[in-house]
Amino acid sequence: MLSKKDNEKLSQVGPRTPAGKLLRRYWHPIAVAAELKEKSVKRLRILGEDLVLYRGEEGGYGLVAERCAHRGASLAYGNIEGCNIRCAYHGWLYAPNGKCVEQPAEPSDSTYKNRVTQTAYPVQVVAGLVFTYMGPRPAPLLPSYDVFSRTDGTRRVVVLPQLNCNWLQPMENSVDPTHVHYLHGDGRGKPVHGDGKAEIKKYEFEPFEYGIMKKRLATNGNGKLEVVNQHPLVFPNMLRQHHGREHYLQYRVPADDTHTLFFEIYFLEGKNNTAVSDSNETPVDYAPSAMTDDGRYRMDRVWMQDYMAWETAGAVFDRTREHLASADRGILVFRKMLKGEIDKVKRGKDPMGVIRDATRNRLIAFNTLTDSKREVGKGR
């Protein structure tokens, strides 16, 4: 179990919290780019901050604090002018970098606007999603994960319903492989995916440069243990998996302490390594609600089963009341890693997985196959 202080340290995401400062050192997806074509302004809450994402008339994006620096009106009702957004209350105009560029009611020779800046964050669009970085500058590179960068297949995005719980609950689940036997096995101890083809004798959790490799081991024909399935938790808030030719990366993005955004990016390999054009817009699917009309969880899909487990533990799980067992070692490995990376940030260092050298960012591929001898998480 954790102390109340440690539980808050690992779960809270506000700007001045330890985990919040750590999470702000990474790029996070915050919205689907196509949504901004129909309506050019979108209100968001990310890492406990109320923001407005907008699309300029020339296709660029801006992400600024929602409350206007003048009198606090919401910029979600603002008007787009070129690449800027104008407050609907008094007409103050802000550039994507947050600088105020016009104050209509002030004298024409006033320089007051030069001293007013709205909080703003950089954004970029990758794989049909808008990403932002909310940490100290200069911003690192957005990691070139294989599902973003490969050209020998096609991509799609799935947006799942917002989770009504803290981000740490789905992330700890990512290093909890034993739950699949019951939660995803119809309560009979028979999993519906993952390790259903072999009797798993052991689980291993191996830290590597981008997170934790979760390994399932079974006995081979010679009576020796071998890895039959492995895939990584990508630090701090991602899970990477694959099924056959389809690879996918799940992002669990904290909206605030009690709500989490959930995005999936899928990449389907073309047959025979044939290059496939990715010039069209990335298709987007929206998953249905996890709840029925009478307020019960729909337990007919894997992700809905997960939602039940995560949300019914509480908006923020009280880990002072937990009773971890030997099968929960992966959770302890993740918590230790999380504490260590929080400490790095406190000492002014970059945490793991932050990339600033473009030569290390050409393609970051993860070995999710069963061959444990291959390199994992290698930037090529």
Summarize the structure in words:
The chain is α+β, with helices and mostly antiparallel strands. The protein has 2 domains: 33-133, Rieske [2Fe-2S] iron-sulphur domain (Rieske Iron-sulfur Protein); 146-379, Naphthalene 1,2-dioxygenase Alpha Subunit, Chain A, domain 1, CATH 3.90.380. It has 7 helices and 20 strands. It has an 8-stranded mixed sheet with strand order 12-13-14-15-16-17-11-18. The chain has a 4-stranded antiparallel sheet with strand order 5-6-7-8, with no helix packed on it. The protein has a 3-stranded antiparallel sheet with strand order 1-10-9, with no helix packed on it. A hairpin with a 5-residue loop joins β7 (93-94) and β8. The protein is globular. The model is unreliable at 369-380 (pLDDT under 50).
The share of residues in helices is 10-25%
What string gives the helices and strands in order?
HHEHEEEEEEEEEHEHEEEEEEEHHEE
Output the CATH class name of the largest domain. Alpha Beta
Shape assignment: globular
* Quantity of strands, as a count: 20
The proportion of residues in beta strands is 25-35%
The average pLDDT is: 92
Task: Give a brief outline of the structure.
The protein is of the alpha+beta class and 380 residues long. The protein contains 7 helices and 20 strands.
